[in-house]
Specification:
242 residues, alpha/beta, Rossmann fold, seven-stranded parallel β-sheet, three-stranded antiparallel β-sheet, 8 helices, 17% strand, globular, binds 2-amino-2-deoxy-6-O-phosphono-alpha-D-glucopyranose
């Protein structure tokens, strides 16, 4: 499903609607959200914070799982994804902080951290709604081009393009790690519903390749074409309408 809206704020409202749906449903298990970082979901997170504050949207009893994390940043580093999600979203909600999980990028053995995260997801899953952004090269999470569709949470190495794209978040770009922990395409595909949000002209080529190019590991987001309930929420610029 492809939804094209006027601007990033409208996209944020659409993503927030999908989250509210999950929170409203009584499935007999905790509502389980998959959270992405990057700038694309920020309007959605701002909208969720607003709905919690002004409309009483409650996250009590919900759980959340982050998609990915940098390796080797010290605990509490402002750009670690755990910190970003805390600052932008979960600190402003009534979700139990202990129910917000991220791959642990501070562990001495990152492969073990990846395996532990997979085990936790398997025990708590499936994710009811996975929110995704998309990289300019079509990556999802930190699954760069070439990532096997069957791969699961693991250590991965960033391309120079992604490092250059993400350098803007760091005071000292050289501090941006080369290695990360990321859920794999196979992990992501287990979510019951996926909403990918892409805004701005810079995402146009990646979105076009995702929607109408061949399904290929060269464009990791094309794996989503085989998902039974995946929505792309695009602004006009990302959709190529202006
Ligand atoms: C990072 C994240 C991705 C995100 C991508 C796009 O690499 N690991 O999950 O989708 O950036 O970021 P932005 O939304 O800032 O363009």
């Amino acid at each position: 499903e492809i939804v094209v809206l006027d601007d990033p704020r409208a996209c944020g409202r659409a993503v927030a609607d999908a989250v509210a749906d999950v929170l409203a449903r009584d499935t007999g298990r905790p509502p389980t959200l998959g959270l992405a970082t990057g700038s694309s979901p920020l309007p959605a997170y701002a909208e969720l914070v607003r709905r919690h504050r002004d409309e009483g949207l409650s996250f009590a009893g919900a759980r959340a799982f982050l998609l990915d994390e940098y390796l080797g940043l010290p605990a509490g580093h402002p750009q670690s994804y755990r910190e970003v999600i805390r600052r932008e979203l979960t600190d402003h909600l009534d979700i139990d902080p202990a129910a917000v999980h991220a791959p642990d990028g501070t562990r001495a053995d990152p492969a073990e951290a990846a395996a532990d995260y997979e085990r936790l997801l398997a025990a708590c899953g499936p994710v009811d709604l996975q929110i995704l952004g998309i990289g300019g090269n079509g990556h999802i999470g930190f699954n760069e081009p070439g990532s096997a569709f069957g791969s699961r949470t693991r250590v991965a190495t960033l391309t120079e393009r992604t490092r250059a794209d993400n350098a803007r978040f760091f005071d000292r770009p050289a501090d941006l790690p080369h290695r990360v922990l990321t859920q794999g395409p196979a992990t992501i595909m287990e979510a019951r519903r996926i909403v990918l949000v892409a805004t701005g002209e810079g995402k146009r080529a990646a979105v076009a390749a995702t929607v109408s190019g061949p399904v290929t590991t060269d464009v990791p987001a094309t794996v989503l074409r085989d998902h039974p309930h995946c929505t792309l929420v695009l602004d006009r610029a990302a959709a190529g309408e202006r």
